[in-house]
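Provenance

Sequences were taken from public entries as deposited. Structures were produced by running a predictor on each sequence independently, with no templates supplied. The record for Pca operon transcription factor PcaQ from Paracoccus albicereus is shown for reference.
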Amino acid sequence: MLDRRIKFRHIQAFVEIVRQRSLKGAAEKLLLTQPAISRTLAELEEIAGVPLMARGRGGVSLTPPGEVLLSYARMSLAALEQGFRGLDRAGLGAPRQLRIGALPSVAARLMPEVAARLSAMDADLQLTIADGAHDQLIEALKAASLDVVIGRLGPPETMKGLSFTQLYLEEVAMVVRPGHPLLATPDLRLIVDWPVIYPPPQAAIRPMVERLLIAEGVAEPGRRIETVSGAFARVHVLRSDAVWIISAGVVAGDVAEGRLARWPVPTTGTEGPVGLMARTDDAPRRERQLLDLAIAGALETLALG
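Predicted structure for Pca operon transcription factor PcaQ:
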């Protein structure tokens, strides 16, 4: 039987501390003082009878019992939010909504076709598309701020409580401005002589890029800018001699239309699955069925999969 002492504020604070990785960050997010959120966590640990978090100089980390509780706490918050959304739709006639998180390669390549198909199937569907880094979108999905995320499969530890349906494989590309001297010499070892736009640690393609360089005996570029900003990278590449290492889908349109050129070096081994991620506890909805149909049609049109 559920302990009557457990309140909503305990679960909300616990999940937010994990999300922010600190008591201070969680307190600011929930508009509380740090002592107040510390007391709330202490109350929850007293009710649980075990420590749920370990405090250290680097912030807080989950204990094994905390790991167990976290997945259920997230599901509880997500279920409650869904319940209130259902009340809104039933009582106020709220419009149908679908909130999709898309990694940059998906937003640039797949989503325009998917959006067009969704509009044709249901003109009243309110579609929200958010792009960003993998970890940001996954956190938003787990917090029920997004309904689904489409992107590369992340590390196993980030996928707890989520399902993954593979859609297609995507490789890493290296692109430069048209007329770049490297286009005449497809030798990956030369990359160390040029500035590079490099995926940051949180980028889903970072491990693939690191493995490629190791396999080819190439040192990690010293002159590099780490970013996931496609807007910045496009402008910077055109104005400089930089090599941009990025998922092929992000620049497929630029390469096809001649705005950027792909450096023809082999990138074998960088292929990774791109798929649709959803919460395992999410109830089936008509909007999700429409999305599945739109994605299937888009994959056929774009010759992916």
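The CA atoms of residues 10 and 284 lie 29 Å apart.
The chain has a mean pLDDT of 88.
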